[in-house]
Please model this.
Amino acid sequence: MARGGTIATLLVTLWACGAARAQNQAVSAPSPAPAAGGFVGSNTCKVCHADIWFNFYKNAHFKSIASGKEPPDRTGCEGCHGPAQAHVAAGGGKNTIPHAFSLMTPKQVLDTCLRCHATDFNRANIRRSEHTLNDVACTSCHSIHHSPTPKFLLAKPQRELCYSCHANIRAQFDMPSKHRVNEGFMECSDCHNPHGSFAATWGMGRTRMVEQSLGNEDACLKCHVDKRGPFVYEHPSVAVEGCEYCHNPHGSMNAKLLRRPVVFTLCLECHNGGGSGTRNQGVDIQSARHNLLDPKFQQCTTCHVRIHGSNADQYFLR
Model:
């Protein structure tokens, strides 16, 4: 019994000495060094911003965390908002966030986003786009944390987002002849690049933010491939002025999105005898046998069926 008591006493003494040494080491150990550059990591952010973190794994920006290969200034929350050490130390507050987007100017927002997105070719013209020149910032269209859309982190469904500024275009899509955007068949971005586009190679470059087709051609040719050509006999208004010279691309009260209700009135905008009026020096004039008061001559495309261009007939008859 005495020997057992001695062993027990010795074990208790050794345990007490070990605990005291560990406590002394803990007290004397230096405090952890602050994170380099003031970055604390996204795990710190989620303590307070749990509502954002809960669904952040669905966000395209989450791949910066998942990859584990990005530097701190391009990882997670701090990749956009900047180092959070001062924000954490202050216990929160927008003014302590280096990049608080709600307090930033449109130019500052754009510069911040382009730190990562500048390499995307479809944003090559964003600094000179109509949206940027009118102070439409990235956050005007995109909702990074609470997007209701499955793609592109948009603040609203795409057409509703565009309609919030372009109300006149919304009215055109309610006309009898239209592209079926409201029905969900297509989206605005099927034809337009909201981040800006290169100057159009048709219509004297007057079109705005239109996404060009292959070979710098009119965007319409991405769907209407039968009108693409090249043709042996080109219709100059199509090849030079573009589709919009005859058609209203969003919607029209006239059939086939035409700008005028009767076909011959549209054709007469060019074929009216103005200028030299000969085949090789200007626009064709009307033949003497074309009595435009006769209804059979008022639908030009009844005979000129290949009006967009022909490989067989110079007058587009076949």
The chain has three domains: 41-103, 120-221, 229-310. The longest strand covers residues 177-178. Strands lie at 177-178, 233-234, 251-252, 309-310. Residues 22-34 have pLDDT under 50 and may be disordered.
